[in-house]
Design a protein that fits this description.
By secondary structure, this protein is α+β, with helices and mostly antiparallel strands. The chain has a six-stranded antiparallel β-sheet. The chain has a five-stranded antiparallel β-sheet with strand order 8-7-11-10-9, sandwiched between helices. A hairpin with a 5-residue loop joins strand 7 and strand 8. Helix 12 packs antiparallel against helix 13. 39% of the residues are buried.
């Protein structure tokens, strides 16, 4: 049913490919049921799409109306996600398959890019009628209980049996064998069905190894994705396409692809002019034969997914995109409080030229504002062209001669403008405009993520700074230093904390670790730190402080646990009292240089048992002695035994214990601070008795 209906629609409107999507049962999803005219792999990213997806078939089904895309430039502007994957000249119509009461799915069909930009009314009516007819058939099938299943795709008819590797008649085969150039036939999947002797000689392979294989798979020197891209371009646009490639060690071949709805015919010959050109070496001013290859697009897309902050996006666009398109400078513009904001720039000799545009009102008539507010890209091939549209621009020259202003639209809303500047006048043909507009969609998504990350990062660090001590108090008889490093996973914020509390004539030191690396853990950490200070101030003993904090944590109902180590310091008497709640033991470096691990008795983690008690132990804290309090992030690492890590920390403290506290603190966390990834927060507190 589906295959016949699709084939009839393609024939009625002269389209060369298309597909039928059916609504998945009880899901807001469309699934491709049958495709015709091209390999299903071309539409691999869209074989199963959500009804809310920003692509034509989903929009047609969602809004129950025909969606028409007249060409490559319109596709790039309206559906950049499709244009990035298929940056070729073609037109597309998507039509809902629906009755008055039910949407069963949608159909899309495509035409070569040479057709008129508008869909004739007659073809519009034929498509609508065909989809209405299919909807009635589906309605009857559902009523009769017949399941709707995917059907085999409608591709070109296979060659008659026994004729693979020949042209059919013997005379035709002899004629082709006499030709001085190579002839190769590809099916819709790009597999070789025929190759004459001249083609095998030019390609440097025997016919048997070529038949049934795709050229870019069978021939290692055609592995560059650009060559497969030319096959895809010919098949989708139905236009003659050509390229040159070098067969090692130095033979340049010319490939010319003649597409049809059943496959492609390829003519191969020696590209003598190219060979001579490359023997002479490249000339100044030679431009690449293609604006941006698939590999470059994929490289940029992959790099942008790894961009963390806004400056990462600016740098990647400057490093990855600008060289590929011949641009010499880049500016990314955003908005803040109704005004333009320069997010970053590269390539401008004088930064002040760019930064004076910072704060431009969104009501002003400038190309950057226009691209942002209208969503329409602006391309200016020369200074005169720019000043003709924006006369005031001649008062702010930036030293460049051509510009592309790309609106950056993500999640349906503008997030900024990307400005690409060229040192020389630069024409922008339609294919280049389409590619740049598509790339603008990639940059917009990366920029949106980066802006959110920067806001989140500022929030996280602001919260962390507010919850941890801004400075350590001066205690009688005690010098102190502290360090904190958040985990690199999650929100760059965690539950590790430390504090010093002066309660003359004594003092208290506390360090702890709340489970998690998020806002909840940080908020709970702040409550625990406040509670410990309060219980210390009213004169509770170390065991009572720990017990009261444990009961508070349980009463808060946070379902999170925390480890904690509490010390009551009495430097005047040279004594200290310790209470532990599941926390790693502190290290004590004695005045003679020996280091002891104070693995004394304690109690369970805070937040587990409301009736838990916490034993205390007293030890000497002689003048010159050094205490190291830390969280488990300092000693725990994948594949490292905890006892070995603790022994190593003890040795490092023994070797460097005479250094100043700040130098020692930096030394102990240096390895973690330099690492690109920390699985856990790291906090430490150093105390030295004077």
């Amino acid at each position: 049913m589906l295959s016949l209906a699709l084939a009839r629609m393609l024939e009625d409107v002269g389209a060369h490919s298309g597909a039928v999507y059916l609504r998945a049962a009880e899901e807001p999803v469309l699934e491709m049921a049958v495709m015709a005219g091209m390999p299903r792999a071309f539409a691999a990213p869209w074989q199963r799409v959500g009804l809310s997806a920003p692509i034509p078939v989903a929009e047609a089904a969602r809004e129950r109306r025909m969606v028409w895309v007249g060409g490559e430039e319109e596709m790039a502007r309206r559906y950049p996600r499709i244009s990035v994957a298929l940056p070729y000249p073609f037109a597309l119509a998507a039509v809902p398959v629906a009755t008055d009461s039910t949407v069963y799915g949608a159909v899309f069909v495509t035409w070569p890019g040479t057709r008129p930009a508008e869909l004739p009314e007659k073809e519009r009516q034929r498509l609508t009628a065909g989809c209405a007819r299919l909807a009635r058939q589906l309605e009857r099938a559902v009523a009769e209980g017949r399941p709707l299943r995917p059907e085999p795709d409608v591709l070109g008819t296979p060659p008659p049996e026994g004729l693979t590797g020949t042209l059919g008649s013997g005379e035709a085969a002899r004629m082709v064998a006499r030709l001085p150039y190579g002839l190769v036939s590809l099916d819709l999947d790009g597999r070789i069905g025929f190759a004459n002797a001249a083609a095998a000689e030019l390609l440097g392979a025997d016919v048997d190894s070529l038949l049934g294989a795709q050229p870019w798979v069978a021939l290692p020197w055609l592995h560059d994705p650009m060559y497969e891209d030319r096959y895809r371009a010919a098949l989708i646009s139905q236009q003659i396409t050509s390229f040159v490639a070098m067969r090692p060690p130095g033979t340049w071949l010319s490939f010319r692809l003649y597409p049809s709805t059943t496959g492609l015919s390829v003519r191969i010959s020696r590209a003598r002019a190219v060979s001579e050109l490359y023997r002479a070496g490249p000339r100044r001013g030679d431009a690449p034969s293609r604006l941006v290859t698939i590999s470059q697009v994929l490289s940029l897309a992959g790099a942008l997914t790894e961009a963390v902050g806004v400056q990462d996006v600016v740098q990647l666009v400057a490093d990855e995109l600008a060289p590929a398109i011949g641009s010499q400078a880049v500016v990314l513009l955003g908005t803040r409080a109704g005004r333009m904001h320069v997010l970053g720039h590269r390539g401008y000799p004088d930064a002040r030229v760019v930064e004076r545009f910072d704060g431009t009102a969104l009501t002003e008539s400038t190309p950057g504002v226009q691209a942002l507010t209208s969503g329409v890209p602006g391309f200016f091939a020369s200074q005169a062209e720019l000043e003709r549209v924006y006369p005031a621009r001649n008062a702010t020259p930036d030293g460049f001669a051509a510009w592309a202003y790309l609106p950056l639209i993500a999640s349906g809303r503008p997030v900024g403008t990307c400005v690409l500047a060229y040192a020389e006048p630069h024409p922008f043909p339609a294919d280049e405009r389409a590619v740049l507009t598509s790339l603008g969609g990639l940059i917009a998504q990366a920029l949106e993520r980066a802006l959110l990350y920067d806001v989140k990062h500022q929030l996280a660090h602001g919260l962390q700074e507010a919850l941890l001590p801004h400075s350590l108090p001066r205690l009688p008889g005690i010098d102190a230093a502290a360090r904190y490093l958040p985990a690199t996973r999650g929100m760059d914020i965690g539950g590790d904390f430390y504090d010093l509390v002066a309660s003359p004539p004594l003092a208290a030191a506390v360090i702890g670790d709340v489970q998690g690396h998020n806002v909840t853990a940080a908020g709970l950490m702040g409550q625990i730190r406040t509670a410990v200070r309060a219980y210390t101030t009213v004169g509770h003993s170390p065991g009572e402080v720990m017990g009261a904090t444990n009961r508070l944590l349980i009463d808060l109902g946070a379902d999170l646990f925390a480890s904690c180590l509490y010390l009551r310091l009495d430097p005047g008497r040279g004594r200290a009292v310790m209470a532990r709640a599941g926390h790693p033991p502190p290290l004590l470096r004695l005045p003679d240089g020996r280091v002891k691990i104070l693995d004394r008795a304690g109690g369970p983690l805070l937040g587990i048992d409301a009736s838990a008690t916490y034993a205390t132990t007293e030890f000497e804290l002689l003048p010159g002695a050094l205490l190291l309090l830390y969280t488990d992030g300092l000693i725990e690492a994948p594949g490292v035994d905890i006892e070995d890590a603790l022994t190593l920390l003890r040795e490092r403290l023994a070797d460097c214990g005479e250094a100043s506290l700040d130098d020692l603190a930096d030394h102990l966390v240096a390895h973690y601070a330099a690492g690109e990834e920390r699985l856990d927060d790291v906090a430490l507190l150093l105390l030295r008795a004077r």
